[in-house]
Every structure is written in C-alpha cells, then in structure tokens.
Amino acid sequence: MMTSLQRMVFNLLEPVGLVWGVLVLLTLWLISRKRWRQAIVPGLLAVFMFIVGSTGFSGWLLGRLESVHPAKPLVDVPPADAVVVLGGGFEPSRFDIFGLGFTADGERLFTGLELMRLRKGRALVLGGAETILPDGQKRVEADMARDWLRVYELPKAPVISLGGCDNTHDEARKVAKLCAEQGWERVLLVTSAYHMPRAVACFKTAGVRVIPAPCDFKTSISLEGPPSFNLVPRYQGFYKMSLYVRENLAWALYRWRGWIKETRAHSPE
User: Which of 86, 11, 67, 126 is CA-nearest to residue 244?
Assistant: First the structure.
C-alpha cells in the first residue's frame, strides 16, 4: 500500500495537483519578494482549487441535487407501465462489444434491467443521443443498447428505443407520445441521481407521470466510506463541481425555454 507521502507525491504529479503546486510555489515566491498585489491572483486560484479538489465542498453541492428524490431499495419501488432509462450511460466505441462503451453513468442501464427483473414494468424504454462518426456514419445509443439486450435476451419483455434524442426534453417529449399511444398512465424514470431533479421536472411539464428511481450516486448521499480529504487537490472534486454547475445551467435554460415549470433545482435545505 502507498504511504501518505507517496500518495501526495503521485497526486502532485497529476495535472490538477501539478497546476495547484505551481500556483502555490508562485504565490510563495511572490510573497517572499514582497510583491503582495501580484500574489493575490495565483493565491486565490490556489485556494479555490484546494476547496474544490481537496475538501468535500463539491460533494456537498452535488449531494443537494442527489437528495431531492431520495432513493429506496428497488424491491420497494412501486410498479409502473414501463421503465424508462435516460441516455448518457453509454457511447459508441470502435472495439468494445456491440460497439458500446459504458460511461461513468452506465449504472442507469443496469438499474433499468434490475427493475425489469423485479417485474416493475411491462416494457423497457431506452433513450440516448445520436452520434455522427468522423466517417459520416450515425450511431444511436438507444438502438445499440437495444440490439445488445436482444442478443442476450434481456429482459424478457419488449425493449423500445426512443431513437436519437437531442436532450432530456426530447426524451420526455417522445415518452409522452409513447404513453399516449400505449395507454400508459405512469412510468418509472431511471437516471443518475444528480440529473433526476431536472429530468422529473421536464417529464412532468411534458405531461408524463413518473416515479423517480435514481441511481449512479456520486456522493456520500449513497456511497459508503470515510469522508474524503486530500492535502493535494484531485480531479474528482472538479468532476463533481462540473456536474453541479452543468445541471444548474441546464435548469435555467430549460426554464427559459419553457421545458420545465419548477423554480428550484436543489433541495431546500
């Protein structure tokens, strides 16, 4: 096992740690030269990187989104007409099986499969983006995932692809149309916990009754283990911060375009 000193050295050699280390050294050098004003900017940047990358601040922010719709054991989730898995869990891959590469949000698909195994829905609906490859070919995430599941005969129920979707609003619009065609009254909505508040609001605005089934937790809201603290900033904090910022910006955009009606994107704690 690596010692604390070895771990700190390795962290300093990572891009985030290296930039932070340079900023700290530059700040200290400017202070030693009594160039106080010039030390302010690199000093503040170093402090910002430390707060985001070393402490639990980013996780706390993202956790506010993850806690809006509390998770429950999947066996306790009420049944619905269908299980809807939003896209983002996979992407086209040249060498992976069936051309599918799972992303950091890949748990979405497996949660949907587990809900189907528990007979929580009569059909599995898959969303996802359409990607145009450099050679001009098109790849639809939902179609590729559907074909993969059919080969393995998972699940023992219809698997429906929404086709290429531009965003969560597009997925909600297509599911609303599907509900009208199939006579579905409500669906189980599966997506990452941090994305669930915007997804639920978007589907409600589209007229779809949903039961949230959040998964893919990124913070201590679900993940077990001791609180994380690193003397040297690491990329994980910046990843969580980027998710939080992106969700709030997307919430504002969706509100502006009339795709959601709710005014808050996080828990009212």
Answer: 67
